[in-house]
Amino acid sequence: MNYLALLRGINVGGKGLIRMSELKGCLEKAGFAEVRTYIQSGNVLFVGPKAETSRLAQKMEAAIEKTFAMNVGVVVFAEREWREIVQRAPKSWGENKDWKHNLLALLPGTDPTDVMKAVGALKPDIEAMTAGRGVLYQSLSIDSFGRTNSGKLAGHSIYRRITVRNINTTRKLAELLASGSK
Length: 182
Prior knowledge:
This protein is an alpha+beta fold. It folds into 2 domains: about 1-80, Alpha-Beta Plaits; about 85-180, Alpha-Beta Plaits (2-Layer Sandwich). It is built from 5 helices and 8 strands, in the order βαββαβαβαβββα. Strands 2-3-1-4 form a 4-stranded antiparallel sheet, sandwiched between helices. It has a 4-stranded antiparallel sheet with strand order 6-7-5-8. Helix 3 (about 80-85) crosses helix 5 (about 165-180).
């Protein structure tokens, strides 16, 4: 079965630095098969038997902590789940080229309602946020980013329970998962 793991907070702003080749070796040593990475921001594709994604995330977190002495949050999706996340995105997500579109993947145990409460009232003329299964689809006006409430999410404590991917990475990961299943 094909899986996607999203790691939170590695190789961002010069912090949490892990070389992808070293991460790949760490995960292979921990028993993950056919490990591939995509770009430097902690996107890991792998193959494994059918298992609970939360257990796979815990296993990966433990391997990373043991190897790199870093506490890294991980969320794992089965290929089918990720494909559905991409397919079920709101029609408007990605439509406006003057807006930035992100996928906020929630670490296990994080409730989308809590994230929405932290954001507060949205300003529909400059931002949108829609809950999906284990994710939030975020769209923000680039010109008005500083005035958006969801753009200030990084200042809230719940942000440590989220890992963000832009729309292009989100879609590319779906393609890579599909190509790995052939």
